[in-house]
Amino acid sequence: MAIEPAFDRLNVNDGYSPSFSYKIESEGEILLDTKFAEELQFQGALMASLISCQMASNVSLSTPSRTHMEAISEHKIEPSLQVREKGESSLRSCDICLERKETDQIVKNESSGQIFCLGCSKKGTSESCAGEVLSKWKGLNDEKKDHEIVWPPMVVVRNTANLKKDENIKRAGIADQELLDLFSSYDAIEKVQQAYNSDGHCGMSMLIFEGSARGYLEAERLDRHFSDQGTGRNVWNRSPLYLLSSWELQLHGYMADKQDVDLFNEYSTGEPKLKYEIRSYQDMVVSRIKQMKEDNHQIIWLNNRVADEQRHGELLEESNGIMRESLEKAMQEIDILRKKITLQHEQNMEEVIVAKCL
User: Fold this and answer.
1) Alpha carbon of 203 to those of 162, 192, 225, 303: distances in Å?
2) Stretch among 62-71, 133-142, 241-250, 284-293 having the lowest mean pLDDT
3) How many CB atoms lie within 10 A of CB 212?
4) Domain map of the chain by residue range?
């Protein structure tokens, strides 16, 4: 139902509601003001009636068991005509986004007294939980990050061939022990395998680490070392540095993935193929690290238990020593007392014999 005709006769031209204080000048003006007041009262009653009817119809559709009067009594009817003093700002500040909005875009929480705009309400903030949202935080998603890795862990070393040729006129490369010596600070390296084909060394070597969480962490550390010094995978793929000004060959390296191992096996025709498995990072590294931590805690607990037992044994041994000394001292005193009793008994017997002789 359209209600606009009810307000056609009320014109507001100066941007704010008319003042209710006025000066009486004539009897005609009194009659006009009286009619104006009656018309305002009539319009207010009409507006309240329309709102009541609309709310009653909405409630009757959603909750058939409730009466219209109950729905109307629970609804808080706001005044249809808001009176604002001249010069008063119509903007209010939202307590959530802190932006100033028009009063018709502002919602007030009656229980907490907080004010927020309709935009924040559409983003998930309701009038009842506006205060709670301001005291909650969002962290990382509870997603289990996992990826496939080569097992045992390996690190590819590139530019390991030189320009020299051996006695068979084939391209030579770095020796296994020389390569191991260059990375002697990484204890988890088990062996080295070189890539050879019919022309000699292919310039590609593989450092194979032990198949453990420690081995993977060591391989990852070496990969990071290459990357930090600017000789990692990205540099090798874009613009590798082959020769230094000192006429030394610059090695590049990176963690091996499945494609790298397959490429190594493709290049290397003179050596046995590298055997590897594709395993889960969570299963082979994360879970084992957790198990290592649990084992370490268990070892620490056992060490503490053994230390407590040793201290307890030392206390018992000390206590036994004290008791042994006390026992020996008591035995000595008993022996002395026994000797005294024997001597006294002999003296007594001699006195008895002498008395009988007399």
Assistant:
1) 8, 13, 20, 50
2) 62-71
3) 16
4) 4-74, 91-133, 149-284
pLDDT category of residue 51 using cuts at 50, 70 and 90? low
**Lowest mean pLDDT across 72-86, 189-203, 261-275:** 72-86
Residue 204 sits at φ, ψ, to 5 deg, of: -135, 125
CATH no. for 149-284: 3.30.70.2890
pLDDT tens figures, 39-48? 656 555 556 5
Distance CA 162, CA 200 (A): 10
> What b-and-e string marks burial along 289-314, b requiring 16 or more CB atoms within 10 Å of the CB?
eeeeeeeeeeeeeeeeeeeeeeeeee
For residues 330 and 116, give the distance between their C-alpha atoms in angstroms, rounded to a whole number. 91
> Which token pair is 297?
């805690």
Give the C-alpha distances (Å, rounded to integers) separating 189 from 36, 39, 180.
98, 96, 8
- Alpha carbons 310 and 133: distance in angstroms, whole number: 57
Per the CB < 8 A criterion, the answer to whether 179 and 205 are in contact is yes
CA-to-CA distance for 282 and 304, rounded, in angstroms?
A: 31
Question: Which tens digits make up the pLDDT trace of 122-180?
Answer: 654 444 454 555 566 777 676 667 889 999 999 999 999 887 777 777 888 999 999 99
Under a CB-based contact definition with an 8 Å cutoff, are residues 265 and 274 in contact? yes
- CA distance between the termini of the chain: 155
- pLDDT value, residue 32: 47
DSSP state of 243: B
Picking from 151, 199, 160, 200, the residue whose alpha carbon sits closest to that of residue 180 is 160
Chain centroid, CA 337 distance in Å: 80
